[in-house]
Predict the 3D structure of the following.
Amino acid sequence: MRRCFDTKTYSQRNKCETIFSVIKRRFGSEILAHKNTMKEKELLFRIIAYNCYRTVLILCVVLVMISMQSKEQNFYNY
């Protein structure tokens, strides 16, 4: 069993659990819809909202890094 154990696949579970935890903390853990189709849509919109949140967060970090680099270059040019 040890020879066939795939550590790359197994470690993916930690990532999934982390994402589920963040989605529940940010957007709530209760589903308000009653019908199954609406439940699926509600969960899908939460996932889309999470993806938008992460994209904006990453873009902000990149913009801050770019602005810091330009400030450093201006400082060394003097």
About this structure: The mean pLDDT is 85. The two ends are 63 Å apart (CA to CA).
